[in-house]
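does this look right to u?? iron/sulfur cluster version
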Amino acid sequence: MPLVVEPQDLKVLVNELNFAEKVERSLDLISKAYKLYGDGLVVANSLGKDSCVVWDLAKRVSPDIRGFIVTTRFKPKETKEFMKEEVARCPELQIFKNDEEIPDKLHETDPDRCCDILKVKPTRQAVKEMNITCWITGLRCTEGRTRTDFKEVEERDKGLIKLNPILIWHEREIWQYLALHGVPVNPLYKKGYRSLGCEPCTQITSDPDERGGRWLGTSKCGGECGIHTRPLKVNYQI
Ligand code: SF4
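got this back:
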């Protein structure tokens, strides 16, 4: 039986539910999904602030819920260090990475291909190797122009449910949750970043768009790496 959520106007939920109601809604979504998918329910943890919230919420539902991290050779040293700390704290987080050779400066000449090789491929690998039937993400519909059309429960790939349990949270509520629950975050936020990615493709900006510092100066500016838009249940080759 699929996970069913009453269709509701997301904009209304974003603006009318208060912080505590949003937390309850998110916990309820994860809890229902865990009952349905059990060990097939896995959190995608990007080590960003939104993932830290989702990971904490999932652990409140059950400490047994597993997670995966996709990392790349281009992640900042602070993110790599934070990843080590998180995996030491939570060994149920599995790391996936693609070390295949890529053309020099591919992130400048063809960032879509670079993301496809370094991020989408290892995500496909995680889905397959961890036998994931439902993955949980930290997507939020207020993050930027590319994130307004998602739903709390989606099935973009047949047989793979995607749960976006904090889709309706504001950025402020993310920080509210992290502060109130004492959840550790990547130290890069202290420097002024609002959205974190690979070092060459992430900048600090004063753009009102939260993801405005991602792939700045390219056609991909403020866009997506592909894990939320590309098929994930396909044959992968590493
Ligand atoms: S974010 Fe940049 S460096 Fe990282 S995989 Fe994508 S294009 Fe490559």
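Helices lie at 10-16, 19-37, 49-61, 77-89, 106-109, 111-129, 171-180. idk if thats expected tbh
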